[in-house]
Amino acid sequence: MTRFWLFKLLRTLLTLWFVVTFTFIVLRTSGDPVVSLIGADALPEEIEQFREQWGLDQPLILQYLQYIVQMVSGNFGESLRDHRPVITIIAERLPWTLMLGLVAYLGAALVGIPAGIGAALRRGGAFDRAIMAFAVFGFALPNFFLGILLILLFSLWLQVLPSSGTGTIWHFVMPALTLSTFTAGTLARFTRSAMLEVLDKPYMRAAAAKGVPPVKRVLFHALPNAAIPIVTVIGLNIGHLIAGAIVIETVFAWPGIGRLLVTAVSSRDLAVVQALVLVIAATMVLSNLAVDLIYGLLDPRIRVGGR
Question: How far apart are CA 143 and CA 185, in angstroms?
Fold first, then answer.
């Protein structure tokens, strides 16, 4: 079991290192950030002074080694635009993204998993077809388009919800609904498929023959055995909450790290972009690591295969 966990942890660390290295190289070879920050009409002396001030005049390999050393020590540098520590800037925005993601994900899980179970129990019926239509709608409709539709409907036409910003609980409704629609549809579809695979198993028929109530058969016999595909989807979608919030926060002017990333990319703020990409990658990788570890707890055969 220990070797299984160590292997997964090592793979996680290697993935994060690759993301950091790839982001660092791409950002510094895709254009000159100095021109974007101080303007193309700046004097050569000003450009050179700016490069020396931020260490951009040093060889790329030396910049990379210095960045790795600083990052390991917990220092992600300063913003080239705001001249503030990157950690401080992200700490101001991250709670808003986490709150939005938590509300969206709880709503998606409370809707998607029961809907998938109900669709599997009523396979081929009207309820099943309605849930599958909702699932297709959920993961086929682009988030930004759904967000614009909700703004047009609830803000401009009905005028019952604020279209952007924060401040009240009503500001959460449309961003959370937009962000959770994809996750709810995906959960419903995969939960239905996983439940259909186990409902006809011999142990389910044996439980029915013993007189076990239907609700108990579903909750304590079918659902635990269908858990691995559902856990997979849950873990992947947790990782997508921060990455998926980039578009949603831009549409609804939400002050989270997704909107911060768009601003930092447009202004070529290298330190902020690098740190945000690392945060998003760490969320994805750690959620996948958690899923792998849960696999090992749910099915001991996976631990044996890992060893």
Answer: 13
